[in-house]
Amino acid sequence: MRTTLILISAILFTSLSFSQGGGAYKQLKPINNGTSSSLQYWGKVNAQNREANRLANERAKKLNEKRFIEFRDLAIENYNNKKFSKCIEYYNSSLKLGYYDASLELVAGISYYHFFVQTKKKKFKKRAKKLFKLSKKHGSIDAELLLDKYF
Fold first, then answer.
1. Cβ atoms within 10 Å, residue 45
2. What is the pTM of this model?
3. Angle at 110 between CA 78 and CA 140, to 5 degrees
4. Which residues lie closer than 8 Å to 38 by C-beta, 6 or more apart?
5. What was the pLDDT predicted at 2?
6. What is the H or E stretch that residue 135 is in?
7. Please, are residues 105 and 67 in contact by the beta-carbon 8 Å criterion?
8. pLDDT tens for residues 24-36?
9. Are 58 and 25 contacting, i.e. CB atoms less than 8 angstroms apart?
């Protein structure tokens, strides 16, 4: 009986001490030495920089797409006007922008083939074949027909 009384009083004493002081978790407090607020500040700065970079990349992508469309249209227009060297020039300018278009590759390939017919230089024929294959890969049926016809 004495052991039960000691055990009950020990349990009562322990529960009172935790309820009064709030327990071990309530007593924990963050270190206030300026480090945590500094880390929070740099975390916010880093997040702002990531967002600014994302927006800049998005703007650059839209600008590149717009430039590509301009180059494509100019290349096709010059091809239609039989200005093959200008067509090739605009095609080459569009390469750096990261986009492709089957019709642009087709007219550039035809322009190169035109120069091959005029000069008989194999480098023009080789380049034309490469562009026809690329145009075919991107969905041009005309390029497939030209490949079958000339190569």
1. 10
2. 0.65
3. 105
4. none
5. 57
6. helix 122-137
7. no
8. 566 666 666 666 7
9. no
What is the per-residue pLDDT for 119? 93
- Write down the pLDDT at residue 151: 87
pLDDT, tens digit, 9 for 90 and up, residues 110-141:
999 999 999 999 999 999 999 999 999 999 99
> Using an 8 Å Cβ cutoff, are 111 and 79 in contact?
yes
Tokens of 93: 């300018």
Alpha carbon 2 to its chain centroid, in Å, reads: 76
- What is the crossing angle of helices 35-80 and 84-94, to 10°? 170
CB atoms within 10 A of CB 109: 28
Contacts of 84 (CB under 8 A, 6+ apart): 78, 111, 114, 115
- Please measure the distance between the N-terminal and C-terminal CA atoms of the chain and give it in whole angstroms: 106
State the Cα–Cα distance between residues 26 and 15, nearest whole angstrom.
15
| Residue (of 68, 144, 72, 62) closest to 104 by Cα position | 72
